[in-house]
Amino acid sequence: MDKNQIIRKTIDFVKVELQSAEGGHDWFHIERVHKNALLIAQGEKADAFIIELAALLHDIADSKFHNGDESIGPRKASQFLQSESVSQEIIDQVVYIIQNMSFKNSLESKTALNKSIEFQIVQDADRLDAIGAIGIARCFNYGGFKNRPLYDPDIKPNLNMDKESYKKSTAPTINHFYEKLLLLKDQMNTQTGRKIAQERHGYMEGFLNQFYAEWNGEK
What we know:
globular; mainly alpha; 0% strand; 61% helix
């Protein structure tokens, strides 16, 4: 098994699959998560092949663009890796990461996850792309895609959502900062992830201060 060749084929596969994807969940999102994962993995004793495959395939079929079906992504990833003769042991690990790494799944009460170092790295890499300047851009891009209002002072963030209410939310885009993005800094798994998240978190806080000042005619 030529691992470098499989990574190249995986990249080609993902680019084709996501060529018409929403801007916050397209190939460029995958590319950034891939780069984040490689950065975080430096100095960690982890399986780089599993990390790269999981990072590249984690959003191959995001459930929110497939009527909430959470089985499509893991199934497509598994079928692709099988077609490339990847060992079942590696496929199982990659699929487990894809199935369990999302924020919405962390809202669901269930048995504690087996968060291998590979899992931790890929989860951190994906969460980093949800915060900071890129996170802000992705947040408003998705809000526009769903035709949500920017902000409504009368609609307060729901800070006690479970998985189902999170999936069904139609709240203004600004609320998403409080319901998810500002929470991610304290949910990072790795030291590198926490360090990068701290800076990106501060950038979002500055953005929100500026947003409210402009909204209220103070600046």
